[in-house]
Design a protein that fits this description.
57% of the residues lie in helices and 13% in strands. The two termini are 29 Å apart. It has an eight-stranded mixed β-sheet with strand order 3-4-2-5-1-6-7-8, with helices on both faces. The chain is α/β, with parallel strands linked by helices.
Length: 383
């Protein structure tokens, strides 16, 4: 017997969106499963149906979110979405896309004086790190989420994360930052700055000794100089980085946050969702439930694939019923696909039987406007 996706408890999305105690919803999952669309649909529904002043933050640089909300572009500043139906509810919807360099720049400006900020901005290592280094995006996403939360002007923040392994990087950002700040290499680089600002040559000869020659061969003297200058310039900010990241991490563990996994009934996507669910459980982060997108359902579920196939073959033998036979064959194929999808979905529900879930029927076309988002929001809420 094929397990049904309905065996899991029903996910009540409207209860989450309407709860004033829930201030953050984090949507995460594999790429290509409709995660960005789901985040936008939830944010829109929170504003229109529940009267909440909502902002949706995407970390994925794709333009789908802006296009679906009728915006020409998104950037690091929340932009209000016009033309939505909030007259009765009194809600608002704003949208933004993370710009990691601008966020890093804002952090520097906020926590240093203008002269020190100019020195940091001019440092080649900072220029590279703030734009391209792996892990910077996830850490800056934590910074931006912390900033939005601290401002206190949003009833609800909906976060659309990158594909799930990057979402795990998002969760791991504070720990990685702490390891970086506590690393032996960093302490050596900070030593001259904390002892009177000796030159890079003094650092290399006095602090590193023979080890410095190896470092110079690997990194190059100029890069090591840039790195040392970067570390010295940011020395006074490191404690603040760590403190804010750990504070945001605690917020993600709190009752005011709800994680929503998004998947499609495909082996890789469900495997990723299960992997992330396990991590959330380990980290004691509040997992609200699973949204299973793009589920196929036959129009006549009581007619199974085998009976439909046999009927099609019988009509073909009789002759003169080609159109009806074709319909039966198409139904048989859809019924087989639905069974496969139920089997795949069952891998998650069997591993996490207590996690609420809701399935969303596959749409005939991609969602590209507000009306489409409303349709998805209604499907997720089962209203």
């Amino acid at each position: 017997m094929v397990p049904s996706e309905d065996a899991a408890p029903q996910l009540d999305v409207d209860q989450i969106l309407a709860d004033p105690g829930v201030r953050i919803v984090v949507c995460c999952g594999a790429g290509g499963v409709g995660k960005t669309t789901t985040a936008a649909a939830l944010a829109l529904r929170a504003a229109e149906q529940h009267g909440r002043r909502t902002v949706v933050l995407t970390i994925d640089p794709a333009r789908r979110l802006a296009q679906s909300l009728g915006l020409t572009e998104l950037d690091n500043t929340p932009r209000q979405v016009k033309g939505i139906d909030v007259e009765a509810s009194g809600g608002e919807l704003h949208a933004m896309m993370l710009d990691m360099k601008r966020t890093f720049d804002d952090v520097v400006l906020q926590h240093t004086d203008p002269t020190k900020a100019a020195e940091i901005f001019a440092n080649p290592f900072y220029q590279a790190m703030s734009s391209t280094f792996a892990g910077t995006q996830e850490y800056m996403a934590m910074e931006k989420l912390g900033q939005l939360h601290a401002r206190g002007e949003w009833d609800l923040i909906v976060v659309d994360t990158p594909p799930s392994r990057s979402a795990l990087d998002f969760l791991d950002a504070p720990a990685r930052l702490s390891r970086f700040l506590d690393g032996r290499m960093l302490r050596l680089l900070l030593a001259p700055a904390r002892s009177g600002g000796r030159s890079m040559f003094s650092l290399v000869t006095a602090s590193f000794g023979m080890f410095s020659k190896v470092v110079q061969k690997v990194l190059g003297a100029q890069l090591l100089t840039d790195l040392s200058g970067f570390v010295a310039a940011l020395d006074s900010m490191f404690g603040g980085f760590r403190q804010r990241a750990e504070q945001t991490y605690r917020i993600l563990q709190a009752r005011e946050t709800a994680f929503v996994l998004v998947a499609a009934p495909e082996p890789d996507a469900v495997r990723e969702a299960a992997y992330l669910a396990g991590r959330l459980r380990e980290e004691k982060m509040p997992l609200a439930g699973l949204v299973l997108n793009r589920v196929h359902r036959p129009a006549v579920p009581e007619l199974d694939a085998e009976r439909s196939r046999v009927a099609a073959e019988r009509l073909a033998e009789l002759g003169g019923h080609e159109a009806t036979a074709d319909v039966l064959r198409a139904h048989a194929a859809l019924a087989r696909q639905a069974v496969r999808e139920q089997q795949v979905a069952a891998r998650f529900t069997e591993a996490f039987p207590a996690v609420p879930a809701v399935s969303v029927t596959a749409q005939p076309a991609d969602v590209h406007d507000v009306d489409g988002l409303r349709t998805i929001g209604a499907a997720i809420s089962r209203s």
